[in-house]
Design brief:
- InterPro entries: 2Fe-2S-bd, 2Fe-2S-bd_dom_sf, 2Fe-2S_ferredoxin-like_sf, 2Fe-2S_ferredoxin-type, 2Fe2S_fd_BS, Beta-grasp_dom_sf, Diverse_Oxidoreductases.
- It holds the Pfam family Fer2_2.
- Keywords: 2Fe-2S, Iron, Iron-sulfur, Metal-binding, Oxidoreductase.
- With 207 residues, this protein is of the alpha+beta class.
- Helix content is 43%, strand content 12%.
- It is built from nine helices and five strands; from the N terminus they run H-H-H-H-E-E-H-E-E-E-H-H-H-H.
- A five-stranded mixed β-sheet has the order 2-1-5-3-4, with helices on both faces.
- A hairpin with a 2-residue loop joins strand 3 and strand 4.
């Protein structure tokens, strides 16, 4: 039974929702039996999967996931958007921060099924094409990273702050970023990068 479930999992991975829906699944057991799946395995897998649709970085995705899977797991393992990092997996480090309908959330604490119909922006969607966002540029210019693992979460959080407050004080920046942890830089360069990006945004684009 375990091997059959794994093979059924592979079927879901390789076929889109419309593909297996056209097979009249889960009622078309003959077609599944030809692939080596039993009626019991098919029924169990259908009950454990949920069809989810949401928009990520201005692109619509639809896929099957388990109700217990986090948004982080689906972004990384199902959609292949690995810029969002898994650090603590319990909401403490902020490495998995993304925008969900305009507000930042820890994607490790958000179920993928909760994001049904939502608009999500990950670190991959911060830049406009090949043009980096001023926050990203400021992080590079201020060397506000070392290993870079926490950087996506910091950049997403910093952008959220500057979207609300175009001229934050150092205290406001440090307080806002308290939910993002870094074990390399000591935070000073990160804070300077956010302050620098605020200036870049207030001055507008330069030619």
């Amino acid at each position: 039974m375990a091997k059959q479930l794994l093979r059924l999992e592979a079927l879901f991975t390789n076929y889109s929702y419309k593909d297996w829906q056209n097979l009249r699944f889960p009622y078309d057991y003959q077609g599944l039996n030809r692939l080596g799946f039993s009626r019991g395995a098919a029924s169990m897998s259908v009950k454990s999967k949920t069809y989810v649709t949401f928009n990520v970085n201005d692109r619509t995705y639809d896929f099957l996931c388990e109700p217990r899977q986090s948004l982080l797991e689906c972004l990384r393992n199902v959609l292949g958007l690995t810029g969002t990092k898994e650090g603590c997996n319990d909401g403490n480090c902020g490495a998995c921060t993304v925008f969900l309908d305009g507000r930042i959330v820890n994607s490790c604490l958000t179920l993928a099924v909760e994001a049904e119909g939502s608009k999500i922006t990950t670190i991959e969607g911060i830049a406009e094409g090949t043009n980096l966002h001023p926050v990203q540029i400021a992080f590079l210019e201020n060397a506000a990273l070392q290993c870079g693992f926490c950087t996506p979460g910091f950049i997403v959080s910093a952008k959220a702050l500057l979207d609300q407050n175009s001229d934050p004080s150092e205290y406001e920046i440090r307080r806002w970023l308290a939910g993002n942890l870094c074990r390399c830089t000591g935070y000073d360069k990160i804070v300077r990068a956010v302050m620098d990006s605020a200036k870049k945004l207030s001055n507008g684009p330069t030619i």
